[in-house]
Amino acid sequence: MKKSIIILICVILSSCVEISSGYTISQPLNKYTPISSQKYDVTYSVSYFANRLDIIGANSETDFRVKIAEKLKKTGLFSKVTYTSFENKSDYHYHFKIIFNAPSVNEEMPVIYLSGVTMLLIPAWETASLDFSGIVYFKNKEIYSSSTPEIIKCYWWLPLIPIGIIWNDWFAMQHVENKEMNYVINKLSDFHQRAFINK
Amino acid sequence: MRRLQIALQFTIIFVSSCTSNYYEDFYSSYEQPIEKCDVLKKTSPQIVEIEDLSMLPEWEAKGYCVLGKSEFEGKWQSRAWAVDHAQKIGASHILTYFQNTYMKLQNTPMSVPVANTTYHTGNIYTPNHNISYSGTSTSYQLANFAVPEIYATWKQIAIFLTPIKNRPAFGVEFDEASRIPGATDSPVKIRLVYNNSIAEKNGIKIGDEVVSINGIRIKNHKELKKFLSNEEIKIIEVRHEKKHYYFNMCHFKFMC
Hints:
The complex is a heterodimer of chains A (about 200) and B (about 260). Chain A has about 200 residues and is α/β, with parallel strands linked by helices. Chain A has five helices and six strands, in the order H-E-E-H-E-E-H-E-E-H-H.
């Protein structure tokens, strides 16, 4: 409770309004209902690269593992979803590659300095990005892949402070991560449906 | 004058900090002569992650030609810029892969000035007076701390593909049947819609599912292949891909 209140205060005081640039269309997760004999076991692995470990709302590799497993199960296509390392992949394997890139501390300092000294009167911004890819391996051979990028812009500007209460770091990151996961898993599910399941 | 100078300084800091994030060493790229390539002006390019360049001939065999190649290295970069570039040059697909990945966790040292305030009290004794005094003095010193960051270098390569100039009359191309052993045949989908074609003018989009052609129901790739060997496309009926939960599945009929 205390931790969440501190995070909330930090988020509001940061006055940063985060807006995603719309490279990825927001969409719900597709659900399928194949008969049980058409369900397959799948293993998956996650490679997560992030240059900053202190971004509020950014998922860790463990969070991604859990969320991806939940979403794969929700598609209804698989009888069993198991996490494994990439080296120990099964005959039917999904590998997810996630790259999160926030500005480094040295890049960030002039922007923060500027907005601080001018009391947020001059609009300043910085840009982060999240690339999410899913690759399908069948018998150790790559047979399909889908990837989607997203740019997240963080604005510091006085008139935008009220919006920042809602469109803050945590909310924007969760929104972007969720829509990218949905997009890629929908693409993989669609491929799985076309390739393996008789409609 | 002083104010103007300060404003100018801020503007320089602002512009340099906000524009230096990505553009400075973005792409070193080359673009091919495009006589044999079909440049698509309106594209929503698809990103395909490949393992290495050995997969490129497979794509060329599918009827694509390389419109350009870009590579960037040394910094973290998003593929969003590759998407922008693909839209600019009119590519339909982007093949990407990584080379020479190197990562290391490091602590970036930072320091901020911290005020150190001390409170003084005391007495001054003279033969006739006894004076008490009190006050504060502030000095500043640098407090050092470290921010954990991951230093990474890699080369990311993007190859921009577009179909070879050989437009079908109706302006659509269909996706391929699955080549996975044991896989069942699936409904036919639209893989590509050409600019200024009959299909584009009538609103057919990439990902639409083919229902019938010239009034004959097409259930899978086998039926499509049989049909195309005998007849030309005159009427095509498609079912739009369901993209948003608030859109219903709908049918449209188009005539040429």
